[in-house]
Amino acid sequence: MIRVGPKVVFRRFHSLVNPRQVVRIPLNIRAPLQSIQACQNKEQASLDEAPEEGKGRKKTGKKTKKKTVQGDEIDQFGDRGAKPDVEFTYFYQTLKDIVDQYPEDQYVVLIQVGSFYELYFQQAEKHASMLGLTLSKRVLKNHEIPFAGFPDYKLEKYLQIAFGQGLKAVVCDQQTTAQNVIVRPVTRLVTPGTIIDEALRDYHRTNYLLAIQFPADPFKKDALGQKIGMCWVDVGLSQFHVLETNMNELMANITRINPSEILIANDLDIDSLITGKWFPELGELKKYYISRYSLPSVSTPLLDFANRFSENKRLVQSRLDKLSQKEAGAAKVLLHYLNECLPFYKLSFDLPKRSLPNTLMHIDPRAAQDLELTETIVGGFRTGALASIIDKTCTVQGSRLLNTWLLSPSTDVEEIRKRQKYIEVFLNNHIFVQELIQLLRKTTDLGRIVRRADNKRADMGEYLELGHTIMIIDEIHKMVKDCPDKKLVNLVLPLFEKFKEYPALMSLSQSIINTINPQTLRVKIDTNRNDLEVLRKYWFLRPTASPKLAELRDKYDQLELRFQALIQQLSAKFEKCGYQGGFNLIRDPRTTDFVIDVRSSRKSFKSLVDNMDLQLRERTKSSAKFWTMEWQTLGTEMLFVEQEILREEERIISLIRDTLLSLSTELRQVAPIIEFLDVCSSFYLLAWEKGLVKPTVDRSTKFEIENGRHLVVEEGLRGRVTGVENFTANSCALDSGRGWVITGPNMGGKSTFLRQNALIAILAQIGSYVPATKAHIGIIDKVFTRVGASDNIFRHQSSFMVEMNETAIILRDSTERSLAIVDELGRGTSAVEGITIAYASLSHLVKNKNCKVLFATHFGPEIHKLMKDDKELERRTDFYQTTLTRIHDGDLPIDEKLIFDHKLIPGISSHSHAFEIAQLAGFPSDALELARKTYVKATSGLYKD
Ligand SMILES: Nc1ncnc2c1ncn2[C@@H]1O[C@H](COP(=O)(O)OP(=O)(O)OP(=O)(O)O)[C@@H](O)[C@H]1O
């Protein structure tokens, strides 16, 4: 808006871009102005026609083709009490055809009409209230059509609500054909694993869609040993993974992939699968969003999907050819599903990569949950989980990599040592790392932007970010070369080998930076409206981008001057006529004429009409539109030049995009430099801030931790307002075939000790330093936990059944390289049976499986007694207890206070101090007294018989 003088307000014929529309909208889908307007007019006509149902409909022509809803569709309407022989206009019939294809108990169908997404018919009735929308009705002549809707920029919000209800969303975007006809095909089927909307996903984590190919008849007993195919991708990124696994390893693999959606064949008995009836571990599947999908009867051969990969077709086909039968099956299902969900989205994956589970630590679903690696057990929050404490990355891709590592620590000693080396040299070069972090902060996610550019979804801001990121990689490269510490140079410089080989990347970066106008960052043109809404200040490119653009911009500036002069001229004339109100120079969207839009009282209009040489085009109570040849000529000229500028910009941008896409492989190869350096600097910061030490990691079977700590509990204690509590460090020394039995009072710190050791092992194997004063860790292949008691009503399993299932898995799958932490096993059943089960499990793990075992129990004395008959087990087991101090804080015995010092010392605790804990928890004194008396009687043998 341009304000001239205190009262006169002029608006240019194109208004400012609405700041609320600062959303990323794909470039290069701008239809020519005339076609957009023609379409909008037609569309308006089609909508206007609706209320006139039966009356205003044209008799001939495709657009008004009549359809009668009969047969089974009549029944649907019959339910709602509508007339059976309902006829719709073409517009409503097309909507109905789409809506009827998708059962409303599984799908939300969102149809774009102008700048709204709308739900119609049964969709509106079923979902309006769930989405929090008002259910309205379009009243036609003979019937009413239920509908509800929301503005298009709120799409993400409503998709999220739909996902929350386990629904899939069918999105029909409004499109204009070459013949200027508006169509609304199903543009995508949105499910949690096929999200392409930026606002809906968090790039700090991967968002995998996983297809699982089970054996042909998986419920046969012998099918348990058969192969299972897995294929997973993140559609917003480019990796394409495959893996062949078996039933025992399946859940651990799913845990580390952590998919957002799992595809399982339609014909599989899903109930038997997710209730764990067939294989108990698969009960964990119910935590995931599962989609049922089977290949269409006529399916495309896998090799024909080679165009969905970015590499040379032959190379892709030879890789696809090498997939095992099961992997290929899963890949085919996944690619078909993506084709159906995202028919207009260009996928271009890297070459299929087989992930090698034997180089990764196996963390089963229970362990990942019990150890609260990425989210807390209660509430599923990130805050309070290990990831929230250790993640000090400053880029999204770094954070994503760290999360991936956390769920799949390495078992490759060389790889772990390489990561440790980075921390080591970084700790000797503080200033270097601080500068590195500052630079990394300014980078962007290259892989994501390449993918978006490929789909014409990247905006100017993203192109510019990409250009700057390449510059920053170059800057980091120079910084490394110039670093005085030769150790650092020798270690880090090889990371830039590929980058050095691609000088074209630097040219691309230069041309982006020299071309794009930085002021246009994040500003988009809403192509559904009108190109005229672009204000000059939002020209995307610098005038120097091409000689033609410079010439056009110059021309436009001249027109601008004439525009300003015309405003002054009109303003002076209006004042002369005694007109005090404001006016705008606009282009009438209806007639497309250039007019002066005047808003004022009738009285003021009169003076204008009487005194000025203006043609009155339209008049209402409070506004009038005048036409002058001068403004018509100037406006047309401006519009013409503006269109020319946009076309030239478009041409230059598409050249940049073509160059960028021709370098997509190179860009993907250099992208890991950023994420890797980011994670290493995050490890450095963690080690520095928390005083961590470098663990010795080798292929021995040792597990020796001196003064270990639990980072999350320690952080929690630091945050406490009352009293300063420090974390008590404890040591641990295990080896294959050895167990530690930990006893002690409730609240004594047994569970914390168990978990801290598992976490230290995981931290060490992701390459981080660890919270201890010294650590020696022989590679651990699997971490198992059996912690807490929870029943599983969904799987018809009691707490004890769940406990036994989990224990059975550990007893079956642990190896001499595994670490098992078992907390209070056997407490879910009667005391004697519980003790014997706990004892047998400990014995099996230590003696039969040669596993490293940390075993917390309240049955310490009993287990110790049972061991007297098994000298071998006794020799291999150590007993430790957590300690507690009583202090008197007053004169009366009641003033005694328990202090948990959480120190682990050799020995067996025979007392759980349950009464004291109950008292602390606020147990009623009567109940507590009764418990104490009963305890005395019970221990004196009163109830023996
Ligand atoms: N080493 C430690 N240093 C400081 N505080 C600790 C330590 N270990 C545990 N704690 C604190 O004590 C609380 C209880 O610890 P934890 O749950 O490990 O005890 P527990 O012996 O397993 O108890 P229970 O037998 O009742 O399950 C923790 O939440 C933590 O706040």
TrEMBL record:
Keywords of the record: ATP-binding, DNA damage, DNA repair, DNA-binding, Nucleotide-binding
Entries under InterPro entries matching the protein: DNA_mismatch_repair_MutS-lik_N, DNA_mismatch_repair_MutS/MSH, DNA_mismatch_repair_MutS_C, DNA_mismatch_repair_MutS_core, DNA_mismatch_repair_MutS_N, DNA_mismatch_repair_MutS_sf, DNA_mmatch_repair_MutS_con_dom, MutS
One GO cellular component, as annotated: mitochondrion
Stretches with biased composition (Basic residues): 56-68
Pfam family, one: MutS_V
GO MF terms, alphabetically ordered: ATP binding; ATP-dependent DNA damage sensor activity; dinucleotide insertion or deletion binding; guanine/thymine mispair binding
Cited function: Component of the post-replicative DNA mismatch repair system (MMR). Heterodimerizes with MSH2 to form MutS beta, which binds to DNA mismatches thereby initiating DNA repair. MSH3 provides substrate-binding and substrate specificity to the complex. When bound, the MutS beta heterodimer bends the DNA helix and shields approximately 20 base pairs. Acts mainly to repair insertion-deletion loops (IDLs) from 2 to 13 nucleotides in size, but can also repair base-base and single insertion-deletion mismatches that occur during replication.
NCBIfam families: PRK05399.1
Protein family per UniProt: Belongs to the DNA mismatch repair MutS family.
Protein's name according to its UniProt entry: DNA-binding protein of the mitochondria involved in repair of mitochondrial DNA
Organism for this UniProt entry: Ogataea parapolymorpha (strain ATCC 26012 / BCRC 20466 / JCM 22074 / NRRL Y-7560 / DL-1) (Yeast)
